[in-house]
Design goal:
Shape of chain B: globular
Helix content of chain B: 40-55%
Number of helices of chain A: 3
CATH architecture of chain B: Alpha-Beta Barrel
Structural class of chain A: mainly beta
Strand content of chain B: 15-25%
Number of domains of chain A: 1
Strand order of the largest sheet of chain B: 1-2-3-4-7-8-9-11
CATH superfamily of chain B: Luciferase-like domain
Number of helices of chain B: 13
Order of helices and strands of chain B: EHEHEHEHHEEEHEHEHHHHEHEH
CATH topology of chain A: Acetoacetate decarboxylase-like
Order of helices and strands of chain A: HEEEEEEHEEEEEEEEEHE
CATH class of chain B: Alpha Beta
CATH class of chain A: Mainly Beta
Largest sheet of chain A: 16 strands, mixed
Oligomer: heterodimer
Number of domains of chain B: 1
Chain lengths: 249, 370
């Protein structure tokens, strides 16, 4: 059978987001701009993936930078680094780290969806031949990357993979480490595809050693109406998801 | 309706020095028995880098061994990936001709273009161009087999005039097929007069509609070869046991393992949005069947699993919707012991095959190969 992730959950438990309950309300997020950049990464990144999940063959990661012009906590930008894998038979992106631009967004994303968001700087800039993203943590750049040479494609050709976050969730008065499926919907207004290009990627700044961006895959930038929905499925971090999945609603 | 075998050659972890050799040897023993039992064809895929799922990057070598061990079963090279970074068309023409000679004219040639990022990126091939290169290759191949000398100037490859040797043994040439997973590819097959080599499982209603459209369309085709191959083939699992309960339990375990392994593959579209891959093809269906809420209902439809009567009923339905050939996966990751696989083949040949007229007929090429 396929191999599994090798993450020692105990080693990261202390810094996991704390969710007070599962009763998260959905957010509607209209006219979001999403830049997604994908690279193959070394197989050693299996050490970052929970034991409940299978690594992708080959291993790959996505950087997702989103501008949300409207949200219940106001406009904000969010950058995520995701290690792609499989939850059972389903492709999923395990969120290794995230940076959001407002304190309100950081708090809500951590408490409602288990996103490991930290406060930082995120910028998304469109030039004539590229869409550039920069991310800073504590004033230091941790990402400078771009989609190069965008070409229009159909939104129907874009397949966004759902996310999995790792959080502690209060159940019966105690925090329980759990993997949380975050599965937004998308209605595309436009989409472009290009080549991913990276000038700076600091794996330490993303808490993602030994991840390196090795082989470029594809980049997309879209405008779409999306959401952060209510949580439906949670998984035990150490049990294969075909046995360790629980439906919340 | 005729019956065949279909090999991905999946190899379970942990991989030892002997594990791949065991899988290959088991498959060869199955093919030898199938030949004796009257199965009509054996197909082997071309896949690269697909851990556990398929350790079969050189099907023509495996099929050569099959041909040497057998007398009448036809050998299906399928599919050969028609993308220049994988296979140069001259090499395809040469290797298939050698296999046709060595097998005494028993070759069938399936064509396709790969559907995984794992393979396409591994060969540095752009998903954007695979359909175009496939189209170019399939139009060249019959002429390379049959023309005394050949030259070509194309978008993906070119050659000055040469004599491509050897020539195929069958006249005019081996039957040609197209791998069909994504909806619509069966129409590409029909337009070119090529057989539809279905690689999806189950769902009679959908298949019936697609087969009917293929049949309608191929009547007005412009064949790329010297004859029209209007056969429809599909793939299925086979585990036949004296009782339904044992046959279903073991067969479902095999199907589940196969579907689970397949669902681990990175489809071209997952990694690289492109109109060249408008659908996810086979993989979403297998993911649903592996774990979805409809797993029990859908995975059972049309699968040749269970006792002989149940298997026969499933295959009669396929026959009724217009399928000419069914190729069986006999195992996945070696979850079924070899002795049980061989027993399943014997039981199927004894109890099920006689119910299908011509199932044990002479092995001729589809639609014209002699």
């Amino acid at each position: 059978m396929p191999t599994f992730g090798l993450l020692d959950a105990g080693a990261v438990e202390a810094r996991l987001p704390l969710m007070p309950h599962w009763d998260t309300e959905a957010w509607e997020l209209p006219r979001a701009e999403i830049l997604q950049l994908a690279w193959e990464v070394p197989p050693a990144t299996q050490a970052l993936l929970p034991r409940a999940m299978h690594p992708a063959i080959p291993s790959y990661a996505t950087i997702v930078v989103t501008r949300y012009p409207e949200s219940p906590v106001g406009p904000f930008l969010l950058a995520q680094l995701r290690l792609m894998g499989r939850a059972g038979a389903h492709p999923r992106g395990y969120v290794l780290a995230a940076v959001a631009t407002t304190p309100g967004a950081v708090t809500a994303l951590r408490e409602r969806w288990g996103l490991p968001a930290e406060l930082g700087g995120v910028a998304l800039r469109r030039h004539h031949d590229r869409v550039m993203a920069t991310v800073t943590r504590d004033g230091a750049p941790v990402l400078e990357a771009a989609l190069v040479n965008p070409e229009p494609i159909s939104g129907g050709d874009v397949q966004y993979i759902h996310s999995v976050t790792f959080a502690r969730v209060m159940e019966d008065g105690r925090p329980v480490p759990s993997l949380v499926q975050v599965d937004p919907h998308y209605v595309f207004h436009n989409a472009e595809r290009g080549r991913p290009h990276v000038d700076r990627f600091d794996p330490v700044g993303w808490s993602a050693e030994p991840l390196r961006l090795v082989f470029p895959m594809a980049a997309t930038v879209t405008t779409c109406d999306t959401d952060l929905p209510r949580i439906r499925f949670v998984m035990h971090p150490e049990t294969p998801v075909v046995r360790g999945t629980r439906r919340i609603r | 309706m005729k019956f065949g075998l279909f090999y991905e050659l999946s190899v379970p972890r942990p991989w030892t020095r002997e594990s791949e050799r065991t899988v290959y040897n088991n498959a060869l023993e199955q093919v030898k028995l199938a030949d004796e039992l009257g199965f009509d064809q054996v197909w082997a895929v071309e896949h690269h880098f697909l851990e556990e799922y398929s350790h079969c990057p050189a099907p023509e070598l495996f099929l050569t061994a099959c041909a040497m061990l057998t007398k009448r079963i036809r050998v299906g090279f399928g599919i050969v990936v028609c993308v220049p970074q994988f296979n140069h068309p001259i090499k395809i023409a040469e290797r298939t001709a050698v296999l046709d000679i060595l097998s005494g004219g028993r070759l069938e040639v399936g064509t396709g273009r790969s559907a995984t990022w794992t393979e396409l990126a591994g060969f540095n091939a752009s998903p954007d161009i695979t359909k175009k290169s496939w189209d170019e290759f399939v139009r060249c191949l019959p002429k390379m087999w049959t023309s005394e000398t050949y030259s070509y100037q194309g978008e993906f490859w070119s050659m000055p005039e040469r004599t491509i040797l050897p020539k195929v043994y069958q006249r005019p040439h081996p039957p040609m097929w197209v791998a069909v997973t994504s909806p619509g590819t069966e129409l590409d097959a029909a337009d070119r007069g090529l057989g539809s080599l279905g690689l999806t499982f189950g769902q009679f209603a959908e298949q019936e509609k697609r087969i009917a459209e293929y049949r309608r369309r191929i009547q007005l085709c412009e064949p790329v070869g010297e004859f029209v191959n209007d056969q429809v083939s599909t793939v299925n699992f086979l585990y036949c046991h004296e009782t339904d309960a044992a046959g279903l339990a073991t067969g479902r375990r095999m199907a589940d393992v196969f579907n689970y392994l397949a669902s681990q593959l990175i489809s071209a579209r997952e990694a690289y949005p492109s109109k060249s891959y408008p659908s996810l093809g086979l993989l979403p269906q297998l993911r649903r069947q592996a774990t979805g809420p409809d797993a029990n209902e859908q995975a059972g439809e049309g699968l040749a699993l269970g006792g002989p009567e149940r298997v026969m009923r499933a295959l009669k339905k396929w026959e009724a919707v217009g399928v000419d050939r069914v190729n069986f996966l006999l195992n996945a990751n070696e979850v079924i012991p070899q002795a049980d696989v061989l027993a399943s083949l014997r039981l199927f040949a004894r109890e099920v095959m006689p119910a299908f007229q011509d199932a044990k007929g002479p092995a001729n090429g589809a639609g014209g190969g002699q």
